[in-house]
Amino acid sequence: xxxxxxxxxxNQGKSxxxxxxxxxxxxxxxxxxxxxxxxxESEAWGFKSESNFLNQVVLFETQLLVLEILQIALDIEKxxxxxxxxxxxxxxxxxxxxxxxxxxxxxxxxxxxxxxRLHLRRFTLEPLAEIMPDFIHPELKKTMLExxxxxxxxxxxxxxxx
Length: 162
Hints:
Elements: E1 2-10, H1 15-30, E2 33-36, E3 40-42, E4 53-62, H2 66-79, E5 95-101, E6 106-108, E7 111-113, H3 122-131, H4 144-150, E8 157-159
Antiparallel strand pairs: 1-4, 1-5, 2-4, 3-4, 3-8, 6-7
Helix pairs in contact: 1-2, 3-4
């Protein structure tokens, strides 16, 4: 069995409902949900947006291979109304980022694991540190808590009551 860590995010539509729906869809396709963080509300990272994001980190146990998981994530994003464009960061109904696959380092054309910018984003590190503070980043060789403490991202982030 593999352990995969996924970040769910949304800032369009009914974001909380979309995150719950995405999580249910992932459970039905990937397997058991081992842990989930609280929901966090944050400003958009990398672009200006009128609406804040809701984010949650979820740890799954699965037998699937990483490229199968990527395709499932892309299909769920599309089913939940995500429209991809090549103009860079933009508001979206659903964003599913694969953060970790076990402790492997994977470099494919369309997939980088660990996620290449997770250590720069407080909205990713805070929920990671909540559910797996001692997990060591396979490339940076620091725990999630250490990376959070080193993070210079100062965008607002609020932990929500679930």
